[in-house]
Amino acid sequence: MTDRFTGVITPLLTPYNDDSSIAFDLYLDHAAGCLADGAHYLSPFGTTSEALSHSVRERIDALEKLVENGVARADQLMPGTGLCNLEETLTLSRHAVELGCAAVMTLPPFFFVKASDEGLYRYFSQLIEGVGSDALRICLYNIPQNTGIAVSPALAGRLNDAFPEVVVAYKDSSGDWDNTKAVIEAAPGISVFPGSESVMMRAMALGGGGCISASCNTNVAGIRALYDTLRAGDDEGAKALAPQIDAHRDAVQAGGLIPGLKGLKARQTGDARWLNLRAPLMPADPALAGPLADTLARL
Amino acid sequence: MTDRFTGVITPLLTPYNDDSSIAFDLYLDHAAGCLADGAHYLSPFGTTSEALSHSVRERIDALEKLVENGVARADQLMPGTGLCNLEETLTLSRHAVELGCAAVMTLPPFFFVKASDEGLYRYFSQLIEGVGSDALRICLYNIPQNTGIAVSPALAGRLNDAFPEVVVAYKDSSGDWDNTKAVIEAAPGISVFPGSESVMMRAMALGGGGCISASCNTNVAGIRALYDTLRAGDDEGAKALAPQIDAHRDAVQAGGLIPGLKGLKARQTGDARWLNLRAPLMPADPALAGPLADTLARL
């Protein structure tokens, strides 16, 4: 990657039919809408996508459907590919590379919460060597509150040093600004994406890549406007945009993030299937979707 | 299951060749040895087995090899089947039922660390209905230090009430005796297996089922003797056996549990492949295996 990997990236919600299968009609419409509203990339199968509630087969199928139906070009996609085991992480990552995806977003092997940085380095090295393609680009995915194990700034720096053309990005969903800042400093070759637009301004001021945020599912136009304003160096303009964006995020988060986003989509599309989440998560409460939509309409 | 599910259960180590594939020659020998030394059941693909470092395909294959090679009868097996997603957990659980396994040992869908008991109940209900077989027996697998989410005593009780013929056991690897005791009290229909032989005496006194312990890989004869002594009501005999058993466990734990067990197996068998662990874990240190074997020889 000669150009630095930057932009506003939507970790795509996954809508379900009432039998819990993926509702592809809603999925493709939603993906198309996010791109039309300004997302640079889509990231199917992040945490907001309920990624870990899907089989390998379902993930491969959904990714292909986005491309085959002409909703997204493969180079607009950065699918999540990280599982606990190397074989299936390789399967997903190879598939994404063969499809022509821009990058893959890869969790550390969770469950192994006591693994050392040395062990994680060993794992990611085996992944990179296993894929064995010059086209592979990896965005390390740090979300220790769910995985129980962090991708440390030192590990990110070491991986970027060893594989500068491959390990090119880091998504930080820790919500810990000190960590975000430490990765930017420890791995200057890496594009760091905070998991929230609320710190995008601070991150981009230090060289961060943009953001990969759940609320890009419902407010990507606003977030893209903020991004463009920051890229243009218009800090005053950015400050003017921030309150609407923060208020949107706060409102969705108050709805429980995924249920909040899905409730809002149900309200906006009039399709109650958007209320479905897979177990162990619970369906979104339609009674909350109305007030949420009203709150956002006032913004 | 008319009889209560009880016994000493070995969560089977998984040995690897130097290319990280499963070393089936060592695996089958080890499984046969555990049964010959007194294990009532084998549990392939628990945490000690590095379960989450294996693909669905590898787990199915290994289970079939144990049966096809005549090493274990299917009704001596309780494989781990719990992943984060329902579809692949169903695949593994259905396969185990079709093979004729005694039970399956199932993690809650980890990664979803904020899931409610209601959400977990929904998940396990969908699993049980999805397998749709009277032959299904589930051992709930509680290891919150790795999964980030506990199977609460109340949830165990509720599942046993709703599915009394299916949800018949609970493995408690939390190391929290208060939780073990609370499950025995909240779910009297369930057979509770502590994850350590060190509390087997206390658990069995309250009606617990035995134990499922990592050290059954290297000390199953000793643990079986303790179990038989407790079943015979010989508390004095049990107290006499306990120090050797606790010392064995302490020594293996000091070696880092899985690396400790594998290091000891490498020393005992003279086969250095036993030192291999899959990333993100690191290989066992052969320099520690010698002193560990010497410590155990002195016991």
From TrEMBL, chains A, B:
InterPro entries: Aldolase_TIM, DapA-like. It comes from the Bacteria. Pyruvate binds at T48, I212. SUPFAM superfamilies: Aldolase. The keyword Lyase applies. GO terms for molecular function: 4-hydroxy-tetrahydrodipicolinate synthase activity. Pfam families: DHDPS. Keywords: Lyase. The active site is at Y141, K171. Belongs to the DapA family. This is Dihydrodipicolinate synthase family protein. It comes from Roseovarius spongiae.
